Amino acid sequence: METSSGEPTSNGFVKPPDFRREESGRGGAAVESNGHGLGMGLTLRLVQELEGHSDRVWSVSWSPSGHTLASCSGDKSCRLWENLTTSPSSSTWRCQAVLEGGHTRTIRSCGWSPDGKLLATASFDATTAVWEVTGGEIENVATLEGHDNEVKSVAWNSSGTYLATCSRDKHVWIWDVQPGNEFECMSVLSGHTQDVKFVAWHPTKDILVSASYDNAIKVWAEDGDGDDWRCVQTLAEPGRGHCSTVWALAFDKDGDRLVSCSDDLTLMVWDTSADLADLSGSGQAQWKHSTTISGYHDRTVFSVHWSRVNGLIASGAADDCIRIFAENREDSSALPGESSFSMVAKKVKAHSTDVNCVQWHPTDPRILASAGDDGTIKIWEVIGDLSLVG
Amino acid sequence: MSSNFSGALKLANLNDFIAPSQACVVTLSKNEKPVQKGLVQLQRKPAARFDQTLKDTDEPVRVTLHDCLACSGCITSAETVMLEQQSTTEFLNRLKSGDSAVIVSLSPQSRASLASHYNLTALQAFKKLTTYFKSLGVKAVFDTSCSRDLSLIEACEEFVSLYRESHGLQKDTSSKKPRSLPVLASACPGWVCYAEKTHGSKILPFISTVKSPQQVMGAIIKRHAWKMLGIRPDNIYHVTVMPCYDKKLEASRDDFLFAVDGAQSESQLQIAEVDAVLTSGEVLDMLESQQVEFMSLEEAPLDKLLTNLDEGDHLYGVLGGSGGYVDTIFRYAARTLFGKEITGQLDYRTLRNTDFREVTLEHDGKVVLRFALAYGFRNIQTVVRKIKTGKFEYDFVEVMACPAGCLNGGGQIKPKKEQSAKELIQNLESVYLKEVDVKDPFNNPVVKGLYDEWLQHPRSARALDIMHTTYHNREMSLGSKLNDW
């Protein structure tokens, strides 16, 4: 629940307090109505609870190898956690480092570069710090200034050549990563009319997506002549876009689909297979809304992540739950090109209060990390037959 | 929120823009009443610059534009709308009332904008505008290319002096604190306001102290040329026509007020160098609302007193749609410091994008001069960041807030229906210099005369007093901080 920037904590939706989904929810209905038989086939087992932060943990990020988990917190620090063994499902995670002194306010987001050598931390102090992690040494090698106020999210592109940040100042900045840990401002993108909450890069192309308090998702790409970046599409169609704050975004493994989560209690899946750069011909290629996953969340969904290994979608919400969704296969009732998803696992009270972030392990299909307002990070193992759902 | 101010100014002021439903929390003097409705009024001050009183409904907070600038450059959206509407009204009212002699100074970028719109050459447009303005009662129409030459001369001398100082080649006796390179151009008010607000003492010491062509023209007219015009400075209403709205903010700076003895009493009057600024678009609006047949206007002879017009009736000026600072200073420095004469176009190298270009001079196998053009907010970021981290390699940078420079200013006339923005800029760049001769500012006879008769020589005590300015850290007011909460 984000209160530091003075935003309303109520999303205006009125729900009966004891509204339960576990027994009577769509998971059960799906088994009955469309006969997919997915049901709630998986469960989450707590591997370990990582304590250490002295304030809410906002975000976690797995290093590309999966050996290190970075977490960032309202306590203005970032912690690095590593497992004493090579197995992430072993309860031997330990805090190996505390990155302090880099920021004067909450660290809201963190992200590893694709080569695992750099960690970026985005803070409410309006700066983004870059840390070089080499062997046992961690050094603050750059501080990116420029945003007017709180930086909300940071993301590296797939080749590690660009770094994107976004802020409450409504702008998205793209930085060019140069040799010698030099970062140059490549573009300052305006378009969102409110606080920008999240940025994410396509897994293979240099296309950036951003999510905002203005309910829209914007897609940014380089101009044809390569001189600047611009918004090539806005995903906010009335009736087919979110009707409240979009909190997070995640592409699937190939970047053909994007999932978004929102204060409007839904997840939306978008067909992002169209080549936006293909401007030849009269019809400009567009990304489209594919499906809405609704009826599962009771409160704001703060985080969503699409595993690049097992194909499952995980969500973290203000109702303290973690949910896992799988795509329904061979759905005869679905329109061609559309897909549908069902919930296949739900962890009630995953944290004692809001779940701020969920992140799948980059290589192990069963491992999921979560961060919560309760100041803890939890490592989970998915139990069940993944071949039925993934 | 007005979309007309430059990107740098808007970005810096985002949190300070107060939506029409809110109110500025800056309260002045005695008016302690809490604001009832979110009305912001401009208060009438003696200098009567940039103000207009709205209907007095609930006695809301009264703020003037230059108070806003002093506070933290906060510009309410209500005020931007008024700035846009009010300048033209005020201009026409002044002409009607006949109290003051109205003098118009036309920038070459606005001249090109109007010329392009009507498919004329710069000279034709200039002559027709002269006819138009004079038909309204304007006393004289001048050309800021002329004052720009003076500004460029001061900038050339400033650079060479600083270069020599920083390379241990000369002692600077004219200022107390030695400044170091790089020098960042000062002609763009969007850039200056952003630097004052966001970077303060980390960047301000590097900004050139030379006034912009607009302010130099104001200084010339109101502190010297008035004698030749036979009009007292306090009776002159000086209006400039500029390619952007940021120039309105520049004109309202307190630094650009000077004191003269009052007519009646022994009190001192504060006189503004520039009383009002009209954008190219506002001039077009005036022409259209008055249904002027611009094409059929006569081509009046130009007022040569402060205009770049040679004996052959040719306009002249420097290369570069944003004032030609790099172009002029580079050549001057090459000649003065290294004895190298550079003719023809400079060999610019495009860096990360077309708005970031550099030009270098080699001497004895080493690079001795490194100049750059940095236009647009993202490139300004790069410049500022490199200076702050001590990794800046340039000696001089022409910094402009607008991508593509002043020809693409926010106040320029918009592209026509079938015309793309890019096509318009290309057209403007060609119209800007078509049938305009390129001449060295040091050879400008008008400017030479101004030095001979008045300023003595570049960087003289008088030149430093009148043609140079200072910058100020602008702290965010408590009000603005609260507004950002």
From TrEMBL, chain A:
Span list, region Disordered: 1-34
SMART domains, sorted: WD40
CDD domains for the chain: WD40
One annotated Gene Ontology cellular component of this protein: cytosolic [4Fe-4S] assembly targeting complex
Residues in the signal sequence: none
Keywords (A to Z) from UniProt: Repeat, WD repeat
Pfam families the record matches: WD40
Coiled coil: none
Superkingdom of origin: Eukaryota
Positions of WD repeats: 50-82, 100-141, 144-185, 189-220, 239-271, 348-382
Compositional bias annotation for Polar residues: 1-12
GO BP annotations listed: iron-sulfur cluster assembly
Job of this protein: Essential component of the cytosolic iron-sulfur (Fe/S) protein assembly machinery. Required for the maturation of extramitochondrial Fe/S proteins.
Family: Belongs to the WD repeat CIA1 family.
Protein name from the UniProt record: Probable cytosolic iron-sulfur protein assembly protein CIAO1 homolog
TrEMBL record, chain B:
Pfam hit, one: Fe_hyd_SSU
GO BP annotations, alphabetical order: response to oxygen levels
GO CC terms: cytosol; nucleus
Gene3D superfamilies: 3.40.50.1780, Fe-only Hydrogenase (Larger Subunit), Chain L, domain 3 (3.40.950.10)
Limits of the Iron hydrogenase small subunit domain: 418-475
InterPro entries, alphabetized: Cytosolic_Fe-S_CAF, Fe_hydrogenase, Fe_hydrogenase_lsu_C, Fe_hydrogenase_ssu
Family: Belongs to the NARF family.
Protein name: Iron hydrogenase small subunit domain-containing protein
Source lineage: Eukaryota, Viridiplantae, Streptophyta, Embryophyta, Marchantiophyta
